[in-house]
Structures are given as C-alpha cells and as structure tokens.
Write a structure and sequence with these properties.
Helix content is 28%, strand content 21%. With 156 residues, it is an alpha/beta fold.
Length: 156
C-alpha cells in the first residue's frame, strides 16, 4: 500500500496550450540570467521537445554583469552579456543538436544580431512575450518567411 498522496491533476480544460507551456518555461529559464539590466530566457523546441535553453549573461565562468554607475554598458547596452537566444544556439551546438526547423520561444523578440543567427540556423518560428524595439529585426524575419508571433497569455 502506497503512503504517497495522490498527485493533484488539473482538469484537462485547464491544461496550458503548448505555446503557453513553453513560454512559461522561458520565464523560468530567465531566472538564471546573470545580467542585472534585464533577464531574458529562451528555449529551442522541435516536435514538442526542448532541444536547448539559454539565458542572457556574462560568458561562463566570468564575473556577472555589473551595471552600477553605468559599468559594463556601452551605448545603453550591456557589453558583457551574451543574449539568451545566442546561448541557446551555443548549447545546441556544444551538444551536437540540430535546431533546423525548430521554434524559438523567448521572453523577448530577438534583436537584429540574434535574428541573423536564427535565420542562418534554420529556425522556422519565433514566439515571444515582450517586445524589444528593433524594427530591422522584424523586417529581416518577414523577408526570411520565419513566422513570428507575440504570445499574450489570457487573463487567469
């Protein structure tokens, strides 16, 4: 006889959509960010399987970003941090995981540099929650026929 309490199970109608599920995971990934300016999380997903995740911050093993009194900032951007999307791509590459045809879930839409990497990596869809103002990134995504969608969670 088991003494474990039964696992509470949400009613099936309460289950999140796949986009809501993966967006929630990117928010959890963002909690690992080491940049004090902004916490961003990303997940590369294919066939409902997480291939790699990434968060923004300083390169592995180096001191975390420090923005007190404008330190580590160049033109208003953190010069020390690698973006979440870049780190997700690097994680996949380090482990020999193809991300071609994957969907990127991210707490923010990608910047121009991340957009160029995602296009070249063969990403087919991007789902983000918060807008990062980079009109040229949106132009390149439209030109490349990568689907980009802003996910807005329904009020609960």
């Amino acid at each position: 006889m088991s003494t474990k309490a039964p696992v509470a199970r949400a009613h099936l109608s309460e289950r999140p959509s796949w986009d809501a599920y993966f967006c929630a995971i990117t928010r959890a990934v963002a909690t690992r960010a080491t940049c004090s300016r902004k916490a961003v999380g990303a997940a590369l997903v294919k066939d409902k399987l997480i291939l790699a995740t990434g968060y923004n911050g300083a390169p592995a093993g180096l001191r975390h970003c420090d923005h007190e009194s404008g330190a580590d900032l160049v033109n208003g951007h953190c010069a020390r941090s690698t973006h979440a999307e870049q780190n997700a791509i690097v994680q996949a590459a380090r482990h020999g995981i193809s991300i071609e045809g994957a969907t990127l879930y991210c707490t923010n839409n990608p910047c121009l540099n991340c957009t160029k990497l995602l296009i070249n990596a063969g990403i087919r869809r991007i789902v983000y929650e918060e807008t990062y103002p980079d009109p040229l990134a949106f132009e390149l995504l439209a030109e490349s026929n990568i689907a980009i969608e802003r996910f807005v969670d329904a009020p609960g």
